[in-house]
Description:
Two copies of one chain form a homodimer.
Chain A: H1 3-13, H2 20-30, E1 37-38, H3 40-50, H4 57-69, E2 74-76, E3 84-86, E4 92-97, E5 102-107, E6 123-136
Parallel strand pairs in A: 4-6
Antiparallel strand pairs in A: 1-3, 2-3, 4-5
Helix pairs in contact in A: 1-2
Chain B binds a DNA duplex through helix 2 and helix 4.
Amino acid sequence: MNNKDIFAEKLRSSGLRPTKQRIKICKLLFDRKDTFHFTINDLNNSIKSITTEQISLATIYNTIHAFKNKGYLKEISINSDKTYFDTNVSNHHHFFDENKRQLIDLDDKHVGKIKIKKTLPGKKIKSIEVLVKVVNNS
Amino acid sequence: MNNKDIFAEKLRSSGLRPTKQRIKICKLLFDRKDTFHFTINDLNNSIKSITTEQISLATIYNTIHAFKNKGYLKEISINSDKTYFDTNVSNHHHFFDENKRQLIDLDDKHVGKIKIKKTLPGKKIKSIEVLVKVVNNS
DNA sequence: CATAAATTTATAACGATTCTAAAGTAGAGT
DNA sequence: ACTCTACTTTAGAATCGTTATAAATTTATG
């Protein structure tokens, strides 16, 4: 079974029809060794550069949101204008390099246990996210 | 010395001319007991509701950015469409209530010490921010 | 007052994202 | 294979938050 079929199967099992647009995006996002961060704009440029059959911007948005809802992508917010997505959906944190304006993964195991000593009545914690902003040492 | 003059003085000492627009915004943001979170849209609505002399949206943006640059406000990002500002400029963290879509302060002292066990060459840590997402307990 | 620099303003422009309605496609049943 | 229906893609319009523009106004200074 080749990659295309694996992705098609994965999509189908999530209730998403395996269209050629979705499979092309799957290949770009998941057919690689390391996880990474990207913006919609980055993805659109990647698609443009590897293919002659452009995918409509609306479809890219639809697909990314569908993948996010299915848990294949994480959306990351930083004090920035851009919306980043992350193919690493495991529990982890981030560095944000303010000079390069770049996100860098920070493994859960590299962050000491975080203790929240305050509770909100009727609420439970869904996630704890740490953002470490860094700047050049000079 | 009344509030207006205190704000005028504060503005002047920051190198900002004390215009009536800026003083009005100061009163709304800083003339209160507790710090709070707001969006530009919230602020615009507040201004509309308390006065007949509307302040231009462009001025509101300019003023908020000026205040932020002077360190009187903090900008806060969450996985959300909105940009929030915080009149609490001390070191602290946040809860985000995903049901009410509302930010709640989380004091530094309510978060156990965070140890980052990874370093980036040539970079130093500027800040560590924790975002605790909560949902209804039911 | 007169002047220069800073500020405000309305409006235009912008970029990211969502909406729309029409055309195309995939899967299930025949 | 053929048909039907629901899902998907598409281009372009619309929308939203924000920034830029350029003229009018205001503030600080001499």
